[in-house]
Every structure is written in C-alpha cells, then in structure tokens.
Fold this protein.
Amino acid sequence: MTETGTQRPSDFIRNIIKEDIRAGKHGGRVHTRFPPEPNGYLHLGHAKSICLNFGIAAEFGGLCNLRFDDTNPSREEASYVAAIKEDVRWLGFDWEDREFYASDYFETLYEYAVRLIRDGKAYVCDLSPDEIREYRGTLTSPGKESPYRNRSVEENLDLFARMRRGEFKDGSRVLRARIDMAADNLNLRDPVIYRILKTPHHRTGDRWCIYPTYDFTHGQSDAIEGITHSLCTLEFEDHRPLYDWFIENLGIFAPRQIEFARLNLTYTVMSKRMLLELVEGGYVSGWDDPRMPTLSGIRRRGYTPESIRNFCERIGVAKRESTVDIALLEHCLRQDLNERAPRVMAVLRPLRVVIENYPEDRVEMLPALNHPANPDMGTREVPFSRVIYIEREDFLEDPPKKFYRLAPGREVRLRYAYFIRCVGVVKDDATGEVVEIRCTYDPETRGGDAPDGRKVKATLHWVSASHAVPAEVRLYGHLFSKENPADVKEGEDFKASLNPRSLEVLTGCRVEPGLAGAPPGARYQFERLGYFCVDSRDSSPDALVFNRTVTLRDTWARIRKTEARQRKETP
Ligand code: ATP
Ligand code: MG
C-alpha cells in the first residue's frame, strides 16, 4: 500500500451500498447521517463515524445529515451541540442546511406512540423501574407479562394523554411496546418507549414532561429523514429487530441499518462517560486538554484534520472488534506535519555556550531553510552571536561510547552556522552542575562545512541567547500507562492506570526570534525535537506557550519494519 493518493479500498458497507444502487433501491439514492447525542464532546471514535457517513455520501453522490439525538434532557446541554458542530466542521465536513434534532420530531413520535396504542401494540405500565427489570427475565429465562399489559385501548389512550399533561410523578408510569415477553432478544420484551421526566429540555424547554426513549427515537428519526443507510456501531445490532418492529408496525420508511466495529485505540479510553469523569474529577484541564482523545483536545494538541481523515481511511471499517495501535495515528500525523510544518530551532532545556573567539558585539544573520525538502517554503535568517544556547542533553562531560554530540575537546556543527569545539566547562561551585560551556568556533566553516574536508559527527540546534524568545513548552505522553485502560476488573477504577507523567511543563525554553508573536494554532517542527504548535488557550504574543504535538520518533514505521523483517526470516 502506498501512503498517499491510494484508491480508496472498498469495504463491506460500501459493497452493500453499491449492490443497493445496482438493484435500484430507493432509486439509487444514498442518504446517511451522523447522529451524536449532545451529552459530551466528540472523540476519535466519532471521527471514524463522521468520516464514514460523510465520506460515503460524497463518494456516492448522496447527502449526509447532522442529527442530534437529543432524547435525554437530564444529560444534555446546548454547549455540547455547539462544540459538536465546531468539531465536525473542523474535520472538514459540511451538512449544509441539514441540521436536525430528534427533539423536533417529539410531536410526530408522540403520534407514532398513540398509533401503536390504538393498534393494541403499546400500553401504559405502572410497574416500578425495578419491577420492570425483574419481570424482564434474563438471557436464559423468559420474561413475565406485566399485569397492566391487557389494559384497554381507551384506558391506555387516556393514561398516556394524562402522562403528557403532567398528571403523574416521574417514574410512576411508562409507555411500553407490546411485543413478546418470551422473545430471545431482550430488547423485544415489551421495551419502555416513553418515560415521565419533569426536566426541561435544552431545546423544547418545559413543553414536554414525557420523553421518548433513545430506542423509540433513533430508528424513527432515520425514517422521517429518509435515511437510506443507517450506519451504526455493533452494540446496536441487537436493537435492529426492535427498530425494524417499530418501522414495520408504524408502516413508515425503512432505512437499512448496517453495523460496524467501534474504533478502539491503545492507551486511550473512548467513552464519553469515562471522558466526562476525567473532566469532572479534574484529572485533565477540560474536554480540550491536549491529552484527551476528544477532537477539541487533539486539535489543541496540534493534530491536523487531514491526518485524522487519513487515519480513518487507513483503519477502514469492519465487523470485527479490534484495537488500533495509537502509533498508527501518530504516524499519520507525522506524515502530514512533515510536509506542512516549517522547521525552526528551539531549545527546550537551555545550556549556555560562550564562543570565546567570536567578537562580543558581532551579530550575523545566517540563512536557514524553512523546509529542507521543499524549497517553495523559502528561507529565513537566524541571528548568530557570541553567546548561544544549546540543548542541555547535547553535552556530556564524560561521554559514553556512542555519544557523538558535544563533549570536552570535541567538535560539532551548529545547524546553518559554524563548527564549534568545546574548550572548557564552567560548573556551579556548590552543586557541581555544568552551567556553561566554553567553545571556540572555526570562521572557515560558516554555513556548516569545513574547506579542509574534516568531518564532525553531530549537528546541533541552537539559538542566540540575546535574540531568542522565552517560551513555555508542554510535553505530553499517553494519558494512560496501560494498553487497554478500559479493561478493568470488578471494583477496579479505570483512573488507576492514568499515567502520572502524561504532562511535563518546561518553562524557560528559548525559541528563535522569528517565532515572536506566533499565532495560536501555528505549527512548527522544532528541529531534532518534534512537532509543536502554539497553544490556543494559554499562549499570548508576549508569553508563548507551545504544545508538543508529537515527537519525531516513528514507532509505527519501526513496528512495520520489524514485521517485514520477521516475514522475510520466516518463509
Ligand atoms: P460513547 O460510547 O463514547 O459515549 P456514543 O455511542 O454514546 O459514544 P453517540 O453520540 O451516540 O456516542 O455517537 C454518535 C455516533 O458515533 C453513533 O453512530 C455511534 O455509533 C458513533 N460512535 C461512537 N463511538 C464510536 C467509536 N468508538 N467508533 C466508531 N463510531 C463511534
Ligand atoms: Mg450512544
């Protein structure tokens, strides 16, 4: 497989759609939807669903709706709606004027419920929630019929109307579909379809005090919108017979539901419930904490929408549950940033270097490439002077064998500048810590090559001490230290595997002067260190804050290489 510009491989969903088009189903029309519940922020799993639904609509000349499945007023908020819209737009998708809300169908859904009552297919039940659960039975034992199951149509119509008028207490009555208490599929054992909930809704206010359940809403909303292919995750497979029952018994448009496996990522939890717990418990700074797998989090971290779309294309869709290595996500990100991020120099842990034979008052502007592989990205000039900073870890007083960087007596190249040789070390009297390096430079090596052909083994990045701009840099690791953090035993808390070192804040970093005033969201490669972006929340022109988006080390490429080698070795 080549990395870019590949023909999109087909998958079982696209094959079904092609077949439906060939068969002339719905006149060849393809209409999908992305149906979030506005009870949290979107995460990478949702990105998979968004790319799939919008992607398929675009490929087959169809349409994709954005529909909020807002049936649970106690957990939903308008702020989530706004955030979800921003995220879908950021990913690069456009729902045009097709922004819908299940709550706009409440009146229609109520009429549907009345229709079922009239047909003897729904009844008002006075059992308590606990009793309903108990009567439901289990996978191995059949359910028991509710004593209210055989109420007359008239009584049911009257009670349901009074439920709507608010005459009864929360939880005192429900409306249930009258299907089959002995069905193998528990979802068909007279499921609850309306509940009393005297909670205002973020869109309908206090107009309603009864709300349809998600199961009574989702499929019918698809039907109302004329959705041809209703794509959802595997956990809805068992609900499909129920959705089909509603559609059939209401005699409304029948979408085709197709289930696919959710996206799971290593070192990540992908459930809104768990993510909400991290936010509310203060384990992260918010939904958009750059360590969160939310779209707002990875956006702030510096991910590009292109890299997410490419990732979603590469993982594809399948029926089988699996977990994707987060290294693949990072690999897609690096591929994209490698092309688009201009190179700059920044020193995260500065060590002062004085170049003894460089004149005190001299400043040279040295040309540097913004992207060594792409001349179109141009050049810039970086100032060089007598006192510079290098990375603390690029110097060792007593270097081990394979350390080729700066050490006493050794010569290295400064990127775009000169060769320097270490001629002395200044230490803190009290601690013995190296606080300054003394060097000499060779004026003949300007630009980075020696006329006499002598070689050096390392090239270091650097900044001029008096020109560099101070910055704070935030380094991120995986939020969890366990590969599958959601895999917890009874009584265990998934938060126990939070990685205590997922955030390291470095202050006193120095970046080259060209970055002064860098705008929020701007992305760079800090040479030799990784990809970084200006934090959109905490950075200001006079107090820069950068997030490390990802390091340069590509573990995915290494995994692939090892696999390839192993394949060769074992014929
Ligand atoms: P969560 O389990 O994280 O709370 P959800 O399924 O409750 O997510 P919804 O708002 O109902 O969240 O999801 C909207 C759409 O996104 C649904 O069609 C759902 O199937 C899909 N989706 C949710 N999580 C994933 C995932 N991890 N991978 C792929 N699709 C997902
Ligand atoms: Mg859901």
In short: Residues 35-37, 45-46, 48-49, 232-233, 262-263, 270-273 surround adenosine-5'-triphosphate (ligand 1) (CB under 6 Å). The first strand starts at residue 31 and ends at 34. Residues 1-6 have pLDDT under 50 and may be disordered. The radius of gyration is 31 Å.
